[in-house]
Amino acid sequence: MILILKRDVPLSTATEKKKQTAAEDGAGRPALLLAWYDRHRRKLPWRPLRGVAADPYRVWLSEIMLQQTGVKTVGPYFEKFLARWPDVEALGSASLDDVLRMWAGLGYYSRARNLHACAVAVRRDHGGAFPDTEEGLRSLPGIGPYTASAISAIAFGRRTMPVDGNIERVVSRLFAVEEPLPQAKPLIKELAATLLAGDEKTRAGDEKTRAGDEESRAGDSAQALMDLGSSICTPRKPACALCPLNDDCAARLRGDQETFPRKAPKKTGALRRGAAFVVTRGDQLLVRTRSEKGLLGGMTEVPGSDWLAAQDDKDALKQAPALKGVTRWHRKTGVVTHVFTHFPLELVVYTASVPARARAPGGMRWVLVATLAEEALPNVMRKVIAHGLGS
User: Which of 315, 317, 267, 274 minimizes the C-alpha distance to 296?
Assistant: First the structure.
């Protein structure tokens, strides 16, 4: 029996019916998932071999990096961080500037600041050991409900089901959840929890599974669903014939699996515009460090104007840095475009060259172009510099 949620059913009632049906009719799903996972689990830099205990530091580091970033992108960064800082003690002893430089290009830079703050807190307040409960983990900087759930399940065997985008997709299809995201998140989390593996005691609802309890494969259950969503239950053209749960999937039986999860229309922020100023002094480039707070906090940038929805080119040009010897700015053809989470951006790029002895304005500095790779440059600034220098 498969129960399909209708929009006119009260959410609380539908949730309880769904949970009951999942528990009664889907008792074999956790075992099917784990059997599939044991055969097909992905090899990832942060994932230990079966039977080897997970390293909480690696789990935490990977989970922070994977927030809104794909596995392929994260892999090289994870390896670099691990080579530089092999444990939380080393990372907690590093400077924020070094962490930001290593993070440059990965995006969503508040994660890097929180990463460093969390490592400092674990080193200072917890003796270099991560708390093994969701409550303890959530007390740390940068660790929210999902990340705390993921770390406690994967690293400590706690009976909890973290729900990422892959798991949302698998569960919404398995139960044909009609409620659109984000409203459906609580229901999807409840349904996902029915897919947790464990002994009969934990299946009955005992939430006091010990950290490291060998009877709990909660972390494997979560990673099985993540892998299933990544490799088989994909957004487009899911390979349903290969899915271990295909006989029990409501959306597949209906034939509309690609329409799940239902999503409310996205709101796109208004286009913002501005100017960026690429100034060279021989083989050096003029840069500055952004404020620690706010968008791209603490990152390196070339000087620029405000980014405003109604920005006028003339007004933007008035915000150029005051430099002796610059009588005219050369406007480069075209614009640099970049899309942030909440708004798209267009930047006009102006260039100028100054004499060898020209001083940097207050709050700015000269850096060798050859050493820019060592600077904490966000992707938008890499684009601007490449455009301005003609490379």
Answer: 274
